[in-house]
Sequence to fold (252 residues):
Amino acid sequence: MARLVGRGALAGLIAGLLAGVYGLFAVEPHLQRAIDLESARSAAAGDTGTELVSRGTQHVGLVVGLVVVGITIGALYGIAMALVHRARGPVATWEPRVVWRESLRLAAVGFAGMHVLAFVRYPTNPPGIGGPDTIATRTDAWLLAVALGVFAGALAWRLAAMQVDSGRPQPLPTLTVVLVLGVTLGILFLSLPARPDPANFPAGLLWNFRIASFGSYVILWGGLASAFTLLTTRERRRLAPRAEVYAAAARG
Fold:
């Protein structure tokens, strides 16, 4: 378990760095335009507030934040991979194609549960959208959407893994995941308050920022699955000679 947690954390660090670099080049330009627009409006209204944190510090914070998120998610990813598929034996002994398949499936479910559902209900907004009097309500609603999505993703993954381990054929496990996530999305729309888009913000800039931000998490989860698989495959090659010695000793 400790080796899987460490491997997952290392994979998450790599994925976080990839997502951070992507964010600097793909997200930051749209974010800067949004900040410039908000600054111009504030200046026109006579508000000349000072910048509390420099943009350079914010750039560093973006990368560091995604690395920390990647390490955290990666450690949990390694634990989930081990716990859900205990019946298959140590992950490092799986065939590479099995590791790829299960890594991508777990990443897809985690990505959907942790980010997609919350994003569909509450798309990411750049700074300057929404008044300070509603920030607590908006934050609480978003956190609740993430929590429900994580729970749904974990439940969907567990149910699908149980069906795979018991020999149920596709597409039943996949349909189970889709059903659980779909029902959860319906619950999010029915139970959480709506957050209307701003009427005084350029729609093109808004959606360019949202799509670029969403791409950060696509790279984070895709990079996590890829790095975890490559590290596991490397571990399997390292353990292969030892396994052959044990097998020969058992036969002799």
Helices lie at 2-44, 55-84, 96-121, 135-165, 172-191, 203-251. The CA atoms of residues 26 and 212 lie 6 Å apart. Residues 2-46+53-127+203-251 form one domain. DSSP finds six helices and no strands in the chain.
